[in-house]
Q: What sequence folds into this?
């Protein structure tokens, strides 16, 4: 069966925004997944690095405290140390403040020299603070010999009281306005009185956090690279995967518009796309089949219409009249009443002979239109052939009065002039009427009696109507005049 062509111009489908397409959604989903996984990993790594760095700083600060305490003990032989359970030096015990004039005379080392020795091993600055009052620690010296016009001050949040200052401390502290990670060794008397504090730093906060900042910046750059690479890769892969989708959507759209000439692409693929394409092509063939069936049905309806209607006037023909008359006769059993009218045009043959069949056809069409305008929706007018017509009139109240009203209207309406090619045509009409069931209870009798009444109208001089009366016969002379 050949496939019908249904090509018609159509506007292209509106293009979806990128983020509404399958490719866009998959790419965004993948990017969100990569971003979530990367951030989760980066945060976990960051916290691990941060914790590892703090543990390293703690160990280094504790080692510095050991180095400083060892240096002090080598120079000041009179001092002792106090350790915890792990062997970590936590206090330096001395009878008098370290670095005073007496200790300088005994050892021959100034505080700066002692601190410089400790600093050489820790490779960072070391400070010596002395107790100026109950709550104030002042700098005695530092390994870098900071000028005296800008003395360093020590600020640690936990050192707010004398008791807190006398404890071993490792952590961040502000020295001279700069943040350092320090270890502090309190210098105390044997009975626990605070004399001063030795502070060793492992470095400034900015320098220590430089590695973390570098890690964050590198992680951010790496994230951007990964996201861009992922977006490009997924976009390329998704475009390869979903390229058939817009094509198949276009095929479906064309099928919806009955444009079924082109076969569906991608039916040779062995994946979901191929199965979708096969389903769409099957739908296309079903639409073609449906269209063919509709065409056959339309053709059948057209032939059926032709079989029951007159081709010229489009009125019902003799076949449909007989069917309608049979139905009307059956309705007599329910007490219905109806009239059967037969009429033909007076002197119609003269019009055909003088003006031609085109004029006669135009006249018949206008006659059918004028008569149809006089009928109700329950009435039926049919063309029997030539200039002969029939009417089935459903009676509402009085068969005779309603038949007379309609017949008079038909005679009066068809008597009015007709125009054809600027020529005026005048004809008349003769009408014969039979009433059911008074004049017959079957189709044959009703048509025969209406025909006798029609002949009687012709015999009376045409351009009139006649009701059937019992005893009417057909006159041969009337037939010749007709």
A:
């Amino acid at each position: 069966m050949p496939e019908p062509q249904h090509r018609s111009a159509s506007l292209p489908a509106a293009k979806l925004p990128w983020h509404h397409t399958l490719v866009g959604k998959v790419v965004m989903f993948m990017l969100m997944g990569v971003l979530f996984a990367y951030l989760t990993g980066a945060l976990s790594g960051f916290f691990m690095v941060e914790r590892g760095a703090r543990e390293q700083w703690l160990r280094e600060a504790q080692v510095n405290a050991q180095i400083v305490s060892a240096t002090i003990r080598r120079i000041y032989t009179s001092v002792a140390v106090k350790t915890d359970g792990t062997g970590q030096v936590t206090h330096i015990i001395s009878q008098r403040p370290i670095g005073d004039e007496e200790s300088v005379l005994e050892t021959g080392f100034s505080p700066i020299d002692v601190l410089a020795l400790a600093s050489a091993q820790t490779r960072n600055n070391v400070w010596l603070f002395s107790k100026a009052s109950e709550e104030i620690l002042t700098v005695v010296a530092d390994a870098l010999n900071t000028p005296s016009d800008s003395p360093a001050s020590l600020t640690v949040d936990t050192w707010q009281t004398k008791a807190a200052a006398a404890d071993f401390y490792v952590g961040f502290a502000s020295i001279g306005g700069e943040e350092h990670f320090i270890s502090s060794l309190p210098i105390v008397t044997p009975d626990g009185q605070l004399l001063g504090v030795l502070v060793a730093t492992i470095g400034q906060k900015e320098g220590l956090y430089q590695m973390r900042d570098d890690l964050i910046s590198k992680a951010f750059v790496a994230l951007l690279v990964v996201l861009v690479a992922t977006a490009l890769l997924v976009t390329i892969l998704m475009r390869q995967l979903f390229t058939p989708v817009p094509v198949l959507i276009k095929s479906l759209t064309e099928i919806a518009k009955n444009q079924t000439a082109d076969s569906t692409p991608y039916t040779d693929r062995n994946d979901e796309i191929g199965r979708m394409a096969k389903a769409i092509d099957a739908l296309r063939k079903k639409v073609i089949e449906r269209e063919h069936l509709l065409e056959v049905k339309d053709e059948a309806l057209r032939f059926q219409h032709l079989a029951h209607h007159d081709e010229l006037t489009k009125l019902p023909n003799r076949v449909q009249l007989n069917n309608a008359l049979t139905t009307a006769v059956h309705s007599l059993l329910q007490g219905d009443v109806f009239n059967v009218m037969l009429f033909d045009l007076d002197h119609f043959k003269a019009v055909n002979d003088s003006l031609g069949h085109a004029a006669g056809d135009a006249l018949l069409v206008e006659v059918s239109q004028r008569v149809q305008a006089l009928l109700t929706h329950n009435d039926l007018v049919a063309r029997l052939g030539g200039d002969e017509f029939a009417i089935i009139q459903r009676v509402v109240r009085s068969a005779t009065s309603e038949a007379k009203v309609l017949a008079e209207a038909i005679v009066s309406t068809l008597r009015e002039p007709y125009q054809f090619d600027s020529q005026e045509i005048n004809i008349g009409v003769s009408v014969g009427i039979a009433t059911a069931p008074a004049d017959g209870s079957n189709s044959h009798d009703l048509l025969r009696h209406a025909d006798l009444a029609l002949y009687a109208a012709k015999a009376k001089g045409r351009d009139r109507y006649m009701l059937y009366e019992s005893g009417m016969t057909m006159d041969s002379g009337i037939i010749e005049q007709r």
Remarks:
- The CA atoms of residues 291 and 455 lie 52 Å apart.
- Confidence is low (pLDDT under 50) at residues 1-13, 157-163, 476-482.
- The first strand starts at residue 80 and ends at 83.
- The two ends are 55 Å apart (CA to CA).
